[in-house]
Amino acid sequence: MTHLPNSLAGRDIASMVHPYTNLDRHQTVGPFVAASGDGCYITDDNGVKYLEGMAGLWSASLGFSEPRLAEAAARQMATLPFYHSFNHRSHEPMIALAEKLMSIAPPGLTRALFANSGSEANDQAIKLVWYYNQGLGRPEKRKIISRIRAYHGVTVASASLTGLPPNHTDFNLPLPGFLHTDCPSFYLNGQPGESETDFTDRIVGNLEAMIEAEGPETIAAFWAEPIMGAGGVYLPPEGYFAKVQALLKKHDILFVVDEVITGFGRTGNMFACETYDLAPDMMVVAKALSASFLPISATLISGPIHEVLISQSRKLGAFAHGFTYSGHPASAAVALETLKIYEERDTVGHVRAVSPLFQRRLKALAAHPLVGEARGVALIGGLELVKDKPTKTLFEPSQGVALAVVAACLGRGVILRAIRDIVAVCPPLIITEAQITVLFDALEAALDEVAAKVLAPA
Ligand SMILES: Cc1ncc(COP(=O)(O)O)c(C=O)c1O
Asked: What are 376-387's pLDDT values in tens digits?
């Protein structure tokens, strides 16, 4: 494929380094150039319209054209386009957003510290964990446990939490003191004859063994996405979080919940903390916080953690952390408007109303010869593609089977995402039943098309 040097594609190739892109391949294939958005649809620079079945990056909860968000940004830009929050400075949109978040957050979370991305909000949560234990006079309690296949971002520290080899290889990561325990996928990691609850007991036992081997006095925090997203859409097995939380309590280990994908309705409740009965000491939110119209994220912290931050200021002076754009006024105004829209339109109620159809269509794909497992909750789903269902044998990575399915979907006007052998589905929360039908009709046809090529005839 060649691209004219003065075309958008040619200019992109000549000027960009693309995140999460095969940079060598990009030199020839070039970019997909999005030109405009309308509800759940994106139109490319050739005028072709696509149903965005991933809400961009699991994030554009209200689609791609909500006028109220554009107006909220314009109003704020015209009033106070920028101010900061260092050195006691503040502004109304940030204050109102913090209050609103506290009013909907899980009980016990009492303060918000803003940042600009999910990675930054996790990164600053790591610093808070360390600062907290230093404040309590136990500096040795600083190791952090997350999970294999977790995704918490890409800064040096948040990539250390992430449990995916490509985020570590040749980046000299993870940093020391970041440990990874089992991925909780019963499908992938359950042993022959093991029940789901036996599997839970085994992996929680492994976590306990890790804590004991390292010394509980050295373990500061455990990090988890309620549903693992970018690692492959893995749901917690039966009883998992109840047992993990009891273990953390026993060893005085902080529980940090990363709701960057699951927050604001994705699982059919405002937060997945409600869906899975989680009581975090800190919670990280981003993405749907502003419907992705502008960058903003937040780390929400418990009262006891906040108390220690205050006592640290008595000792050290100013809390020496913050970003120029922490709680940026335009982003905060857009986030506040987003939360108002969720409330006024009962977006969570809408998710609950349409998700039975979404889950029915998703789970029906479990019968497809290419699909080993179809899993999901409310408006998030994943298909694990396998070469042989009874033995769960995977395809050779070089076959790119999930990529082929996603390409076949694109050819049918639907954007989905391939993660290794998994096809992920995570549409805008405003998706309608008619659009869910279009999405799954395309996915089913794409699976048939690819199965005909990669599966030997029975
Ligand atoms: C659970 C989770 N945490 C953190 C992040 C990182 O967020 P960002 O890309 O905004 O840095 C992501 C991004 O997909 C995520 O899914």
From this structure: 999 999 999 999
